[in-house]
Write a structure and sequence with these properties.
alpha/beta, Alkaline Phosphatase, subunit A, four-stranded antiparallel beta sheet, 9 helices, globular, binds 2-acetamido-2-deoxy-6-O-sulfo-beta-D-galactopyranose, binds calcium ion
Length: 504
């Protein structure tokens, strides 16, 4: 009897609460949860303690992993940034778009403005949509005037609020852009950008090593900003140039403010962290926190940011109505172009965990990344071995919010992401610097590709070989034993499947 009364009371309270919300939200479906995607840059499968790292501690990511679903077979679509982000936001495999390659800071917008996107889908369902952090999907039409409104960009493909860096931390323009306007721009000190030639009199890493606080190793010898030489040439915008060491805080505060500004409506926030991509520039309060140099320290910094963001959701009273998805755009790299001790101080830490390869690679570590879904009170803690890809978030989140939007490449796997089902995709195409491979069940097929087996600059096995490679991940997670010759039937089956999808 007592129990019945309690339930009855609860129901009537909920009804009252619901009707309050309904009037607040002017008829929108107030039961729709917020969605926050936290997207790290170059964070490897083995870089967080929840995935087995012992030399680095990521308590805030671990909290999400312990309280949510930790995927052991979660994939980005690509082993580099722009293509992975393209797939995340469009639900379309990047190898279908030949322009989906690592983009320069002057590249035009990669997503068509009439294309369906994840933020547009949310918007159609009444959400407010925001992006804070790394964009790297191109801006404008290829002839951007950085001193005027920069368009089209994130605002034109579905984000109502955008506070971004255009490309990467190592590429010009080294400025923040808020809703299409360079922050702190000055008409008396106009910004000019070129990826072809320097502007007369502007210092470069190549000619002015005395200005550098971090030396370049390969690439990265153009314009010097904040003591770090970048890819590409930049002139002007002295006041607008970012201070790398403050970037984590800058983005965090914008993301926190976004949550506070929109906590009373349903919102979708894409929080695209810049860590641990180069140049790695931890804020002084994180310097030395790992003994691994800047790469380890910025992972700890990123983890702290994630903790602060979760605390903001909690304090705003919306944590229990928010699905959080944490993942990375591609696998890890140590030396990606600067002398920052990443390779010399890594010690026994294994950024790729038990996987072979890394960033740029068709081997597993290129695209198999940490992937965690967390929703306090809704998702039960679990470890899932289901195969899921970031390209699936489009159809799955669409299903979550009651939208009909789907794409052919994006599988609706909502129950898998919610930890209610174990069966993910049966197969998936992965991409790395223009090459592709197939994962199907326990098996991986890497077609023959010309070129070096190991990329010399970054010292990573990128997957090139003169013949087909076939691995059984169930028995050989580290992809050491090529079964192409000993398993001809399996090889044939895999090639047929690969070619059928690629020619689709
Ligand atoms: C490469 C850069 C690398 C990094 C990468 C993009 C050189 C030699 N290397 O071209 O440092 O910027 O592009 O990384 O310039 S990503 O994570 O955004 O894809
Ligand atoms: Ca990346």
């Amino acid at each position: 009897m007592m129990k019945f009364l309690t339930i009855a009371l609860l129901i009537s309270t909920l009804n009252i609460l619901n009707s309050c919300n309904a009037s607040q939200n002017q008829g929108e479906d107030s039961s729709l949860p917020n969605v926050v995607i936290i997207y790290a840059d170059d964070l490897g499968y083995g870089d967080v303690s929840a995935y087995g790292a012992t030399e680095i501690s990521t308590p805030n990511i671990d909290k999400l992993a312990r309280g949510g679903v930790r995927f052991t077979n979660g994939y980005s679509t690509s082993a580099t940034c722009s293509p992975s982000r393209y797939a995340l936001l469009t639900g379309v495999y990047p190898w279908r778009n030949e322009k989906a390659k690592i983009l320069d800071g002057t590249a035009p917008l990669l997503i068509q403005t009439d294309q369906m996107t994840l933020p547009k889908m949310f918007k159609e369902r009444g959400y407010h949509t925001g992006i804070v952090g790394k964009w790297h999907l191109g801006l404008g039409d290829g002839h951007v005037n950085w001193n005027q409104q920069i368009t089209p960009g994130p605002n034109e493909v579905g984000f109502e609020y955008a506070y971004i860096m255009a490309a990467t931390q190592d590429r010009v323009p080294t400025v923040y852009i808020e809703n299409g306007r360079v922050v702190r721009s000055d008409p008396n000190d106009p910004i000019e950008i070129s990826y072809k030639k320097n502007f007369p009199g502007e210092p470069t890493g190549k000619d002015n090593p005395e200005l550098l606080k971090m030396k370049w190793h390969h690439g990265h010898f153009n314009t010097v900003v904040n003591g770090i030489s970048r890819i590409g040439f930049m002139k002007g915008g002295a006041e607008a140039r970012w201070v790398d060491e403050n970037m984590a805080d800058t983005f965090l505060v914008r993301a926190q403010n976004y949550i506070l500004d929109h906590k009373d409506e349903s919102f979708f926030l894409y929080y695209a962290l810049q860590q641990p991509h180069v140049p790695r520039t931890p804020h002084p309060r994180f310097v030395g926190s790992t003994g691994m140099g800047p790469r380890g320290d910025v992972i700890v910094e990123a983890d702290w940011c994630i903790g602060e963001l979760i605390a903001t959701l909690d304090n705003a009273g919306v944590l229990e109505n928010t699905l959080i998805i944490l993942t990375s755009d591609n696998g890890p790299v140590l030396n990606d172009g600067y002398y920052d001790d990443a390779d010399t101080k890594v010690g026994t830490h294994t950024p790729a965990g038990p996987l072979r390869g890394g960033k740029y690679s068709l081997f597993e570590a290129g695209t198999r990344v940490p992937l965690i879904t967390y929703w306090k009170g809704q998702i039960n803690p679990a470890v899932s071995d289901a195969i899921v890809s970031q390209v699936d978030l489009f159809s799955s989140l669409s299903s979550l919010v009651g939208s009909e939007a789907r794409t052919g490449d994006s599988e609706e796997l909502l129950k898998v992401f919610m930890g209610e089902k174990d069966q993910g995709r049966s197969e998936l195409i992965i991409e790395a610097t223009g090459r592709t491979a197939l994962r199907k069940g326990d098996w991986v097929l890497i077609p023959p590709y010309e070129g070096p087996a190991i990329s010399k600059n970054v010292n990573i096995e990128i997957g090139n070989a003169p013949d087909y490679q076939l691995y059984n991940l169930n028995e050989d997670l580290g992809e050491q034993d090529n079964l192409a010759a000993s398993q001809p039937d399996k090889l044939k089956e895999m090639i047929a499947c690969y070619e059928a999808i690629r020619s689709d």
